[in-house]
């Protein structure tokens, strides 16, 4: 009954469902690695969603949309960074307000644009929608099984994987990245070792926000097929925050984690309806619990929560 | 001090009293001109309140569709903008917010309040008792008090049957997908699926209707994913009972077809949408406000509920896409004529199609679990079983 072709289609759909989570998770890891728990992922994604959508609407160019989504995500993360790094405000409160602000801002711009189009809907141009479709590379995509498995996703997915790998390399293979991790573990020690704490906090938080912004653009542009819908991120930012734990603060693991979560989110539509939907809705949480349990038993190196996560660093209090 | 206050109060009351008389005098001539002859309200004095669960400015979906109905009513009756009071984003699970919104409408002088979402029902009932001079008209529910609180809804299954014909003729894989917001326990969704499936069966007995449930009235991501799963399973027409365009967009992007719902989805998706099942709420809103204006509905007297049909113009299917199969228009026309002349009402009655087959279950529906269910045209909203060609995936 269940054919190989059907399983391949399921995997393609699962990766599609996991892509926005990948951006959100990697973005949040970047921020948490310097000790800043940013609960504003949902808001930064929303701002990126509307900025990317607007840029795509204006230019009809996918790369341009991604760049603007990235910049807008950075800008919204800048609000968070200024308030928590420079002004030492409570990270949880600022993150939550950033979420509320971001969603409201995106919906506000969206409704304003819908009113201005004259057709009562805000839509991307057809040539951009064509660019967002799953790629079809000659020869490569035609390879049986492998072609479908590796070369049949939309451009966002490849960008997301590239960003995740780059962030993994940056955090674990470069001096700057290791320094940034030291800040998240013990900012006072890092400061004493002449690492510029404030500067690297800003850099990481802003990069993280930008990455979240691209994930938001995926929500508004791909998930909703180029038609603007209010609240388009729809809670994916929150799942991303949770996925950080699943990924054990490793961007490479986030690739696997987000695709597994994507699969879990769509499993209910691909399984026969004999099992109640509530069971499938519960699955991601069960899996997270199991992974946490396994991680703590295994005690893997480097896969623990940054020691100073959630605490602001005030030099004079050393 | 108290005496002065009392005097001022008395003065104010008297002024109000005279002002009231004055109004009555002004209204008298226009009332006597009306057919009802009773205590109607002049067109320029009527005020209409609307409670929306979402924001109509979002350009599509449930609240937008209702608001288009209000706009149509306003144009039909020539009301000015300040005669419409809109309360948007009123959560239908928040009793305090609903009550506040409705009280604000009443304070602003509304004569009739349309409450467009299911969850407003109980608040309507309570406030209708408190304010016997204001009409409360509640959509999609079942409660009413016969005097100043009614409910309105429509036979949307008629339009769904017609759209099923378009889907049944188009499919080549003989698998038609249906993204439903709620499972079989929800009669509104289930009766819609059954009517659609009957329409499919009337022209294509070999086709099955595969149903996937999102368990949410609004889940943009899930609605698209459910549609993709149906397409991956081989469905080549995707119908829907949910709020966003996403199932139709998935159909278009996979080079298959769809049947939209709520508003004409060709606007966003293009010709891949064979047709859309739509509500024209303006048909009811115009009738209702007209009834208040000409005194057909007077608070405290008999006010009937409204249950509109295809013939009333409350619901319809949109013009067929050029991609619809050949002969779709003719097949739909025969069924539509039978529905409009009353000989066939999807769950009751029968009609004869162009090939001479008798179509319709005539009150006894064969279910997909092998049993039969008696349906008489009044209990259709309580149907919790699927028609024989429906498969739940």
Account of the 3D structure:
The complex is a heterodimer of chains A (318) and B (393). By secondary structure, chain A is an all-alpha fold. Chain A has one domain (19-311). In chain A, 72% of the residues lie in helices and 0% in strands. In chain A, helix 2 (41-59) packs parallel to helix 4 (91-117), helix 3 packs antiparallel against helix 10 and helix 12 packs antiparallel against helix 13 (277-298). The termini of chain A are far apart. Chain B folds into two domains: 44-154 and 281-308, Rossmann fold, CATH 3.40.50.2300; 156-272 and 321-392, Response regulator (Rossmann fold, 3-Layer(aba) Sandwich), CATH 3.40.50.2300. The termini of chain B are far apart. Chain B is elongated. In chain B, strand 15 and strand 16 (372-374) form a beta hairpin. In chain B, the strands form four sheets. Chain B has a seven-stranded mixed sheet, with helices on both faces. The longest helix of chain B has 32 residues, at 2-33. Chain B has eleven helices and 17 strands.
Question: What are its keywords?
Answer:
heterodimer; A: 318 residues; mainly alpha; 72% helix; 0% strand; globular; B: 393 residues; alpha/beta; Rossmann fold; 2 domains; 7-stranded mixed β-sheet; 6-stranded parallel β-sheet; 11 helices
β-strand percent of chain A reads under 5%
- Whole-number radius of gyration of chain B? 24 Å
Order of helices and strands of chain A, N to C?
A: HHHHHHHHHHHHH
Instruction: Give the overall shape of chain A.
Output: globular
Write the layout of secondary structure elements.
The complex is a heterodimer of chains A (318) and B (393).
Chain A: H1 4-33, H2 41-59, H3 62-86, H4 91-117, H5 126-132, H6 146-150, H7 155-173, H8 175-185, H9 187-192, H10 197-223, H11 236-246, H12 251-270, H13 277-298
Helix pairs in contact in A: 1-7, 1-10, 1-11, 1-12, 2-3, 2-4, 2-10, 2-11, 3-4, 3-10, 7-8, 7-12, 8-10, 11-12, 12-13
Chain B: H1 2-33, E1 48-51, H2 62-77, E2 84-87, H3 95-107, E3 112-115, H4 121-130, E4 135-139, E5 149-154, H5 156-170, E6 175-180, H6 187-203, E7 208-213, H7 220-232, E8 237-241, H8 246-253, E9 257-262, H9 266-269, E10 273-279, H10 282-293, E11 306-308, E12 315-317, H11 328-340, E13 351-352, E14 358-359, E15 364-366, E16 372-374, E17 390-392
Parallel strand pairs in B: 1-2, 1-3, 3-4, 4-5, 5-11, 6-7, 6-8, 7-17, 8-9, 9-10
Antiparallel strand pairs in B: 10-12, 13-14, 15-16
